[in-house]
Amino acid sequence: HNRVICRGHRASSFSAVDHIELNELRARQRTFDGAYRRTALANLGYALTVLRLFDVRFYKIGILYLVLAILLFFISYFRARHSRHDFADRASEKIRVLYQQAIPTVGQEDAREFGRPFVTAGFDVVLIGVVVFAVEVAMLVLILQL
């Protein structure tokens, strides 16, 4: 199994060097991991609202939002696993090429580097787009059947 190594330590025993690095790590987790979980929780709340407050005719819509929330939780789990590698040591050739291709932010050319360069989670975004689109189409069909 492939272990994540951060500054020579296993990811489970990694500790930040200073408060700046700790803040950066927390910001990345809030932004990239937390957003998926918050969206899933919001959909779960909406599903429970529909299931508890509305008529029996709307139960299918509530169940649909429940399914969306569960799918978003699964996607957030896999996104969180992917994010664990953001602070990992530069080991592979693929990562070295990423560092060479990274465009520095204007005004941050000499700033401290935290982990790997940011790469958009394109596959995750496309997957969420497809899932949400499918749920919205199914909801439209259910609403038209009312």
What do these coordinates show?
Helix content is 64%, strand content 3%. The mean pLDDT is 78. Strands 1-2 form a two-stranded antiparallel sheet. A hairpin with a 2-residue loop joins β1 (5-6) and β2 (9-10). 9% of the residues are buried. It has 146 residues and is mainly alpha-helical. The protein is built from 4 helices and 2 strands; from the N terminus they run ββαααα. The chain is elongated and about 60 Å long.
Brief summary of the model shown:
The chain is an all-alpha fold and 146 residues long. The chain has 4 helices and 2 strands, in the order ββαααα.
Class derived from helix and strand content: mainly alpha
Work out the helix count: 4
Radius of gyration: 20 Å
| Helix share, percent | 55-70%
Q: Sheet bearing the most strands, described?
A: 2 strands, antiparallel
Q: Name the poorly predicted regions.
A: none
Helices and strands, in order, run as EEHHHH
User: What's the average pLDDT?
Assistant: 78
The proportion of strand residues reads: under 5%
Major sheet: arrangement of strands: 1-2
Count the beta strands. 2
How widely separated are the two ends?
A: 51 Å
Mass-distribution shape: elongated
